[in-house]
């Protein structure tokens, strides 16, 4: 019997997807100065929240993409970011890392 690993997936917003400058969209909290990447349970929630998120649509393309939890946390920590699970209105539900 083989053990199956069930990966946890989140959705994030990616700036300039499939380009040399591709990067996760992150923000800095004005009150605390902490940097974070918003993550979402579904693509639909990510897209709804994206409508109210600050962005530069004149100069960048954005896309909601799925990412495995461990990969997201690794990249966030490597770049000095926390990860927060958010709802469709941009409210923090919980800290992921």
- Distance between the amino and carboxyl termini: 33 Å
Q: Biggest sheet, strands in spatial order?
A: 3-4-6-7
Question: What structural class results from the helix and strand content?
Answer: alpha+beta
Q: What's the number of extended β-strand segments?
A: 7
> Oligomer, anyone?
single chain
Number of helices: 2
H/E element order: EEEEHEHEE
Which shape, going by the Cα principal axes? globular
Strand content: 25-35%
Mean pLDDT: 93
Give the biggest sheet. Answer: 4 strands, mixed
Question: Over the alpha carbons, how many angstroms does the gyration radius reach?
Answer: 14 Å
Q: How many domain regions?
A: 1
Uncertain spans? none
- The helix content is 10-25%
Can you offer a commentary on this structure?
- The protein has 97 residues and is an alpha+beta fold.
- It has one domain.
- 19% of the residues lie in helices and 33% in strands.
- The chain contains two helices and seven strands.
- The strands form two sheets. A four-stranded mixed beta sheet has the order 3-4-6-7.
- Strand 1 and strand 2 form a beta hairpin.
């Amino acid at each position: 019997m083989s053990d199956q690993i069930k990966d946890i997936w989140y959705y994030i917003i990616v700036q300039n997807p499939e380009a040399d400058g591709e990067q996760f969209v992150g923000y800095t909290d004005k009150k605390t100065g902490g940097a974070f990447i918003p993550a979402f349970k579904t693509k639909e929630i990510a897209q709804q929240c994206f409508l109210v998120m600050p962005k530069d649509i004149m100069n960048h393309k954005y896309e909601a993409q799925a990412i495995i939890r461990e990969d997201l946390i690794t990249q966030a920590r490597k770049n000095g970011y926390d990860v927060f699970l958010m709802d469709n209105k941009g409210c923090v539900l919980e800290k992921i890392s």
